[in-house]
């Protein structure tokens, strides 16, 4: 039988979010219903709310979530009722050209649940990133559920988006190796996760760059060995000075603006790697001298979801968390209720939090 639960929607562009009744259908073939325990408040949810993703309103917001599988549909074998899971928004298909090449983290045909959740008047909802976890329960494709050891869901759920994006940008996309130097531009949640990833991978010099002293101090907690306030000094020159005059082996742009990407490009060593993980808006343009792209060598990469494979990476990161080698708890700035999300968006805009986490 369909269930009616409480959930938070964005009904129209720019309007305050609303706490409403949401109808969750029974899972169909390949689907699962998950009882949501926690969900982080991510910038992507704000982008949905402001109409910057698409205009498929109303949206059921929330996607950075952990919970327990309540029921599964026909044909589901990967998870079972009672499993503690982290939700992901890239359920790989196993059949596209990327999957067939053995690169499922690039899957070009990721999928979501077929059925739609609705309002009680049958208005269909668009779940944010195919998840919609600002709700007591949600319907997802079973492949969006990754079973892990049961830990604090407020910490584990953050792996579902921003933390994985940052950590993976360093470890998977940037391929940071022992003894290398890494600079991270932008020290919000994603940037701090990239700092942590670089430290875990064995980088000996990890430089955090931001205009906010509070964020720079926070980056030290995640493993930054040096900090640069780019509002006061030229970050390119500062990074070069901290790396023997050469530039960093890997520079990660966690902001996604032309000016920060240009800084990343010129702050890397010859044959170094630049990784773009901050998501630019469609209007942003960048011009670089083609001779500089040629003569500096190396690689210019973008990182999609940290180039992660949830079935591989989520359990590994939970293990690191349990071993005390990856401080997920430090990303949880506050724990709030479903009715506090609009205020959490305001704190996010002001840069006061790494993550507000909704507990249900």
Instruction: Give helix and strand order, one letter per element, not per position.
Output: EEEHEEEHEEEEHHEHEHEHEHEHEHEHE
User: Span between N and C termini?
Assistant: 22 Å
The 3D shape can be described as globular
Number of helical segments? Answer: 11
Radius of gyration: 20 Å
Proportion in helices: 25-40%
Structural class: alpha/beta
Low-confidence stretches: none
Note the beta-strand portion.
Answer: 25-35%
Quick check: average pLDDT? Answer: 96
What kind of sheet is the major sheet? 7 strands, mixed
The total of beta strands comes to 18
Provide the fold topology.
Blueprint (H helix, E strand, L loop, with lengths): L2 E8 L7 E7 L6 E10 L2 H7 L9 E2 L3 E9 L11 E4 L9 H4 L17 E2 L6 E2 L9 E5 L3 E3 L5 H4 L5 H12 L7 E5 L3 H13 L3 E6 L2 H9 L4 E4 L5 H8 L5 E6 L4 H10 E9 L13 H7 L2 E4 L7 H13 L11 E3 L4 H9 L6 E4 L1
Give an overview of the whole structure.
It is a single chain. By secondary structure, the protein is of the alpha/beta class. It has helices at about 45-50, 95-100, 155, 160-175, 190-200, 215-220, 235-240, 260-265, 290-295, 310-320, 340-350; strands at about 5-10, 20-25, 30-40, 60, 65-70, 85, 120, 125, 135-140, 145, 180-185, 205-210, 225-230, 250-255, 270-275, 300, 335, 355-360. The strands form 3 sheets. Strands 3, 5, 6, 9, 10, 17 and 18 form a 7-stranded mixed β-sheet that branches. Strand 15, helix 9 (about 290-295) and strand 16 (about 300) form a beta-alpha-beta unit. The longest helix is centred in the middle third of the chain and has 13 residues, at about 190-200. The model has no long low-confidence stretch (mean pLDDT about 95).
